[in-house]
Amino acid sequence: MKRFLNTISVITIFLLSSSFLNGQEAEVRDTLNLEPGYANDIYYSLKNGEVSNVARNTWDIAFFTPRFSAGIIINEGNGVQLFSYPNGDTSAWSSIDTSGMSGWTAMNNSPETWEEGAFNRNALGHPDYGWGVYNQIDHSVYGDSVFIIKTASATMKLRIVKKVSIDNLYYFTYANVDGSNEQTVELDVVPFEDKNFIYYSLDNNEVVDREPSSESWDILFTKYIDMVETNEGGFAPYLVTGATNNVNAYSSNVYPADPSYVDWTAQPFDSAKNAIGYDWKSFDMGTFQWVVKDSNYYFVKTVDGDVYKLQFKLWEGSSTGLFVLDRWLVSLSSVDEFGLADNGFDIYPNPSSGSVTIAAPSALNGEFDLRIMDQAGRLVYLGRYSGKQLNNGIKLSNLNMPGGIYLVSVTGNNYAFTQKLMVR
Predict the structure, then answer these.
(1) How many Å apart are CA 408 and CA 214, to the nearest integer?
(2) Looking at the structure, do residues 345 and 323 belong to the same domain, yes or no?
(3) What is the layout of strands, in order, in the sheet containing 250-254?
(4) 246: helix, coil or strand?
(5) 233: in domain
(6) Same-domain status, 166 and 125
(7) Can you give the pTM of this predicted structure?
(8) Cα–Cα distance measured from residue 118 to residue 75, given in angstroms and rounded to the nearest whole number
(9) Are 406 and 2 in contact, with CB atoms under 8 Å apart?
(10) Is 17 helix (H, G, I), strand (E, B) or coil?
(11) Do 223 and 239 form a contact (C-beta atoms < 8 A)?
(12) Average pLDDT for residues 241-251, to the nearest whole number?
C-alpha cells in the first residue's frame, strides 16, 4: 500500500490548466509533421501531445517484446516485402531458388493486431506461429520456415532459428540469396521490454532503439498496409498513412456528431490497431487537395485509462507531411496518478455535475479530514468526519465548483489517499 503520511500541502500535484466547457475540457490543438513523403513516424499521447518523431527508414524487421509472444513484423512503410519460400523448409537453406519470385504473394502485417506480423501470416494456431512451432517442454519456439525478404537495398534469405521464451532471446540467420554475407544474430529482448517492439536493420546489421516506452503514448501516426476497398467492390492490401492505436489504447468513432457531443459510453471501444485508421481523410480529384471528414470524432481510451475526444482538422498531404488535430479530455480514469491502493476511497459519479459521494470501502476508525483543492492549490472544501461516516459514504451536494480538475484527499489516523475529481 502506498501511503501519504504528510499533509496535502507537500504532495506534488499534476495540474491541468484548461477549464471545462459543455462537459469536456477546452480543446488543445496540435500541429504535427510527418515530414515530406510521410518519412517519419510520430508517437503521440492524448495527454501530452507528441512524444517522439523518428525516421521510419532505419529498420527492416521488429520483434514483439512480451516473453511468450512470437510476433514479428516488417517495415511496410519503408517498402520491405516478405515472402514465404514455397520450395522447401529450413532444409532448403543452402539451395534457395528465387526464379518465379514475381508470382509469389507477399505477406503483410495484420492491420488489426500488432502481435500478428508478416512472419506470422502462415500461422495455423497454437502451437504453430507461422515461422516456428512452440515446444511445450522448454517453452521455446523453433523455426521451421525460410523467408525471402526484400529491403530497401537488397534481397535476402532469412530464417528465425528459435526464440528462447523464458530468457526472451531470439536467434535468427540471414544472408544474400546466394549464401554470401551470412549473419547469425542473438537478439536480447530484455532491455526493451518496456516497449512494444525491438527493431533490427538487416541492411546495417544492428539493433535500432527507436520506440518510446509503451506506457508513454496512445497513437502511432505511420505508413502501413491496410485492406482498402477497390473500384470493383472488393478489398485489397494497399499502403496508407494513418493512425494506429497502441496495444492498450482503444477507440470508437462517432459520425456525424455535434461538436458538443461527449457521450463516449454510447458505443463500445474497438481494440483493433487500425480502429482510427486512414479513411478520416480523402483526396478530392476536383480540387487536387486533401479533405478531412467534417463532424467526425473519435473517442480514445488511453493507456492510462482516461478518455479523450479527438477530431482531425487538416491534412496537407505528402508534400509537407503536416496535419492538425484537436483533442479534449472527457473522462478521467478511476485510478489516480498517485498509485491508489485497493483500500483507498471511492468517488462517484466521476465526472460529477456538482454532487459527489466519497466512500472508504475498508473499515476506518478515528477522525479524518476531507479536503478538496482546486487547480491553483486553493482549499475549496474542508470537513472532518468519522471513519464510520466515511465507510457509509459522505454525499456532498451543491458544491458550486466551476468545471475543472480537483484533488480530493482523505487524511487521518495513519491513512492518507488522494484522487482526482472532474467537475463538469
Answers:
(1) 29
(2) no
(3) 28-33, 322-331, 307-315, 297-301, 250-254
(4) coil
(5) yes
(6) yes
(7) 0.79
(8) 10
(9) no
(10) coil
(11) yes
(12) 97
